[in-house]
Amino acid sequence: MNFDLTPQLPATFDLVHIVLAGIAVILFFAFVLKPSKRSLVDAEMDDTPPAGVADSEDKKIDSTAVLTVKESSTVKETAPESALQFLGLLQQEARLIDFVQEEIGAYSDEEVGAAARIVHEGSKKVINEYFTLDPIRTEDEESRVTLAEGFNAAEVRLTGNVVGSAPFTGTLIHRGWRVAAVNLPKLSAGHDTTIVAAAEVEL
């Protein structure tokens, strides 16, 4: 079916048609020049950093967050070789393992005391030879000390009636110890540190 629109077109243009034509033109340009939602989004995106910069900043933030989580949740593992070596030295010089593993209930206090003297002397020899120890607090024990605000809780442990916040004043019960230097013997290649005391066979 065909429609003939020729009769509907005006033969002449009067004022009404001119006005309608002007309105149509205005509406046309208004529609064409109206910014679309797409262009508004693009304009907003122009105010944001480029994609590469944003991605890199996001990666920095993410990596920092991951690093913070790892630092707060990771437990530092210690190598057992030094501890085993130290235990072996205490056994060698002080017979510490033999003393601890022995059932001392059947022995008298005098006999236990005599064995403890050997353990004490040997242990002191090992510690003084391979470690340098400094007291954490320099005051005399049983003296009165004051802990200022912000004191290191790892160095000083509060006991007794702990109430309120620093500064604290109390009696120094123990000065504490800090290891200033460690000088354990070097291990030879292939040395088995798990053997802290070799079995002995007398021929």
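The above is record 1. Record 2 follows with the same two-line structure.
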Amino acid sequence: MPPELGKAAATNAAQLIHEAIAIKGTANIILATGTSQLETLSSLVQEDIDWRKVTMFHLDEYIGLPVTHAASFRKYLQERFISKVCLQAAYLINGEANPPQECERLGRLIAQRPIDVALVGIGENGHLAFNDPPADFKTEEPYIIVELNEACRKQQLGEGWFKTIAEVPQQAISMSIKQIMKSKNIICSVPDKRKAVAVKNCLEEEMSNLYPASILQEHSNCIVYLDKEAASLLSEPTSYS
């Protein structure tokens, strides 16, 4: 991701976090992981925010993957974000716990803390979090157990998180589509040419669970940050970073 794209997304997120703290004294945020979020998180930790008033949730985690594994999203967030700020609370998905019980635990927690800002991305297959197509647009459960399709698993391999496709887990715990959409504000960062088809499908085609991130068209406060490569197939005039 170009540094300027991550900086723009982080600056926007910081403003929204400040506004939430000013209004109610606290802010609740969702953070994504993966290569698309590296520059955003790097910039966000440098923002002048009273992190002691911020509670963080994250989007998804592989089932059965140790926290010590390089691809663990808990490890990713601990190293790149949690260790660099002093949060009020950080609620991570434990992929090594009993999956149904973990979904229930996190569901209870997030139900008590309406989300002010969600930072998300779009996968090469159009997924939002680990909600691969055809995504479940109807479930009211905040966190669900999902099967990872081949395109999703190949993306994780291609990004260098795993050495072989066999190492990529086949299941994950993911925040549901409806839970993500409950966020007051959504900031979606999507860099790279490899995301261009997904971006076009999700932003220009009719909303469909075959293009999970197309649901973002329905959100009233969603901003999508694209670089030139990710926006290259769009037919409509687009401003990008």
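The chain has seven helices and nine strands.
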